[in-house]
Design goal:
By secondary structure, this protein is of the alpha+beta class. The protein has 2 domains: 195 residues, Four Helix Bundle (Hemerythrin (Met), subunit A) (Up-down Bundle), CATH 1.20.120; 190 residues, Heat Shock Protein 90. It is 72% helix and 10% strand. The strands form 2 sheets. It has a 5-stranded mixed beta sheet with strand order 2-4-5-7-6. 22% of the residues are buried.
């Protein structure tokens, strides 16, 4: 049976080639007709285009010189200058202008253009009569008055009407170009449709003979596209040809290797992010430490030892929580105490401008959260909100449960942000671009620990304050 199939294949291949030749031959006839029609249309519109271009050139040249030259000649005649030409010579100029109108009329197909030429003929006839009448006036003043009120007005009307003619011809030229473009597009579309139909017929007949090859190759192509989109779950392609089976197995092995490599890269990148963030966490702002110690010294020198002791106690709690025995995940109560100690320390330094309030229910204190989730936001509220406003400001930290999630908010009534600055910060949070540790790093850590559905939202209005909301899960697994 296999042998018979091999003997029949050449005969079928030859039949297919003959059908393709006949199909190509029968396709060339209508395509050739379309090409000839396209050339005829090009020839017709090219002739019109050349005539319109010639009309525009002649009319533009006429409009450039006619009025000035004729007005000057008639002025010399009116004042009786020796430099003036004979009236017959000037009348010849009018006749030449009328000849130009006749020439333009032969190549003018636009209705508005024909109307303009009719008006120009009428103006030229009227101008000729007025020129003759001017020579019959004996008094100088009347000749000059007649010159201004008749000759120059008529030449101005001729110039204006010629400008209308030029405009109409230009618009008609544009219409000709549009019409040519539309017809060419129509013919090209017809040729494209005819060619497409030919290709469809050829492909349909070819598919009948090569379906056994095209079907598995198409499936493998789709598998490669899925790999490119990140989908690595694929089934083997069924094929009767050994080479295609080997090729499919090679694609499957490649997909498995790519999937493993991407997973390794993702894990390494995640570990790199966590390492960077942990290093940032371990850093203490030296200015904060210097200022705190200076304040303690100032309190001791001022005899306020109890305040100094309280401040040292708050500083001890602050550093103890920062260390947290090396843990990156701590109970919310510890994060709250860490933030409280920070605000207590800062309140000694900014007692004239800073008030704060923390309202987190005790039953939420055991929920695990990433360390340094609240304190950086409180620091941001102090340095970028409260310190930049006049008078005393207030920071409010709140917590609540909402739809099986933990929601923490840090609000201040400070300076707030301009819409432009708010947009920059929101884009930094959305794209992960660092805009300082206080906001972007917290948002990045939330994304790493919780994934989609959780994160940071920031609202701010210039002159009224800023509100930052954290949406966290109630369960979290530390990253190792």
């Amino acid at each position: 049976m296999k042998i018979l199939q091999r003997r029949e294949q050449p005969r079928k291949r030859m039949e297919l080639e003959e059908r393709m030749r006949r199909l190509l031959f029968t396709t060339m006839i209508p395509m050739t007709c379309l090409m000839i029609l396209l050339l005829v249309i090009f020839w017709h519109y090219t002739g019109q285009y050349n005539k319109l271009s010639e009309n525009l050139a002649v009319s533009s040249e006429f409009n450039l010189h006619f009025k000035d030259e004729l007005d000057l000649e008639m002025y010399y005649i009116a004042i009786g200058s020796r430099e003036s030409s004979d009236l017959e010579d000037v009348l010849d100029q009018v006749e030449d202008a009328q000849d130009i109108m006749k020439k333009l009329r032969r190549n003018t197909y636009n209705t508005n253009g024909v109307k303009s030429l009719n008006s120009l003929d009428s103006y030229l006839d009227n101008l000729r009569k007025r020129m003759i009448q001017l020579t019959e006036i004996k008094e100088y003043d009347k000749r000059m008055e007649f010159m201004d009120s008749n000759i120059r007005i008529i030449t101005s009307l001729i110039m204006q009407e010629m400008q209308n003619y030029i405009y109409n011809e230009s618009m008609y030229l544009v219409d000709v170009e549009k019409s040519l473009t539309q017809r060419v597009k129509l013919l090209i579309s017809g040729m494209a449709v005819l060619l497409f139909a030919t290709l469809i017929i050829l492909m349909r007949r070819s598919f009948r003979l090569t379906d056994g090859i095209i079907r598995p190759v198409t499936e493998m192509r789709n598998k490669v596209k899925k790999v490119g989109r990140g989908n690595f779950d694929m089934l083997p392609v069924e094929a009767e040809i050994e080479e295609i089976e080997e090729l499919d197995e090679g694609i499957n092995k490649m997909a498995r290797k790519i999937s493993a490599l991407l997973e390794n890269v993702r894990q390494e990148k995640e570990m790199q992010h966590l390492t960077e963030l942990q290093l940032i966490q371990a850093q203490v702002n030296p200015h904060f430490l210097y200022n705190t110690l200076d304040t303690i010294v100032w309190l001791i020198e001022g005899g306020m030892t109890e305040d100094a002791v309280e401040m040292i106690s708050s500083l001890s709690i602050f550093f103890r929580t920062s260390l947290s025995k090396g843990n990156d995940i701590i109970p919310l109560s510890e994060e709250e105490r860490h933030t409280l100690s920070y605000l207590e320390i800062q309140q000694y330094r900014y007692r004239d401008i800073l008030e704060f309030e923390i309202n987190i229910p005790k039953e939420l204190g055991k929920i695990p959260v990433p360390k340094l989730s609240l304190q950086p936001l409180a620091e941001n509220a102090l340095y970028h909100g409260i310190k930049n406003r006049r008078g005393k400001g207030k920071i409010i930290i709140e917590g609540r449960e909402e739809d099986h999630a933990l929601v923490l908010t840090v609000s201040d009534n400070g300076q707030g942000m301009t819409p432009e600055r708010l947009h920059e910060v929101q884009e930094a949070i959305r794209t992960g671009r660092r805009e300082g540790f206080g906001i972007a790093a917290v948002a990045e850590r939330i994304a790493l620990y919780y994934g989609s559905g959780y994160g940071m939202k920031i609202l701010s209005e210039e002159g009224k304050g800023t509100r930052i909301e954290l949406r966290l899960g109630k369960n979290i697994q530390p990253k190792s």
